[in-house]
Amino acid sequence: MERKEWTEETTDKKIEETLNREFPLPAQVERAKRAAFEEIRNRVKAAEEKECGRRGKTEEKRRRRKMQLTWTLSTAAAITLFLAVCVANPAVVRSIPILGNLFEELGSSQAYQGDYEEYAEPLKEPEEAETTEKQEQKKKEEGLYTKTSDGVTVTLSEVYCNEAALYLSLLIESEEEFPPVREQDGKPVIDILRSDISFSYREDFQLQGNYLDGRFLNNKTYAGILRLNLEDTKWNGEETDASIQIPENFTMNLNIHEITGHLPENFKGEIPEKAACCERDWKFRGEWDFAVEVTKDNTKTVTKELSLTDENGAGVLSVTKTPFELSLDINDPEARYAAVVLDAEGNPLSPGGFAGTEGEYAIGEHDVSTIYVYVCDALEYMDELKGYYWSDTYEEQKKTKTFRELLDERAIYHQEVLFE
After folding, report:
1. At residue 138, what are phi and psi to the nearest 5 degrees?
2. pTM of the predicted model, to two decimals?
């Protein structure tokens, strides 16, 4: 069988397949890889030039054997060099499967869970020429999506935005161990409430930060997702302004001033001085400022108009379904009503996150091919109806009357909604 010539293109392809087989590479490792490629090319080229004058049949066979041996040894040396970079920089190794893949890492554990990786856009630093170690450190502290303040580094990883909400994954790394954190529903309670968030389509309006939904990767690294309800950006100070539309493309400015952890109950230990705050919390203080270009993705987003309003137009106007949430458009200025959503099996949907928002429901594992939307009297629902489903005896009670049947009887308005 005829042997193939080892060309520069063949060499590059073989090495790239070897080094990229298991995972995509972050910028720092990518530079090390490119350096390894260049080293191999230089060695192969030198070997070719040395053998250039020998064209005899016997010499050609020897040349091919030598070239293959040169490629094998060079590849081994380059991979050894590449691995040495990773061993000498464990932070690089940690970042290989994490940065750019936080949604995949956290998606199944989120309150608004789902396959975010199918929709999210990784946030990548712009490509630059080779840099020195000092320049690299400066870039780490001053990159577009990585900021360091007082020993705490915040890196934005991915962004996803639909008509209802914006999701931003981020990594928080501390030079020292994180202080203890209270858990709720098995997750650490950490927030960035002391943040200013503005949008290019409403520069005169600012949102406050929110609680993060995530977990610790180790005692110095936390990975979480920030969810922002974009309907809040339509508030004009008195009511939601329907004339304010969220454009397909916009810029979000995120300025984090404090990262707050909530201490476990009855905690009596000591907190590092820089994180000391008050009796129940600790805080990392600093300035982590970002500007993120966002493209709205309406893939699999469906809005259905509803007829669930009284003579004054108060009630539920519509429902919007995205891959991760259901959102009701509620007009209830006097807080007279309570809206309830049941899935196809008659189970109520719940708000996601530590602090639920009225009219927002996490889909999770619910079957929402069909949903049932109810508008009930607020007092009656809270005092009588809600407890029916959540009572300890519901499993026995539903044999006689299910929660859905109860709401069919007692709700002021209700409507079945089909999603294809």
Report:
1. -65, -40
2. 0.70
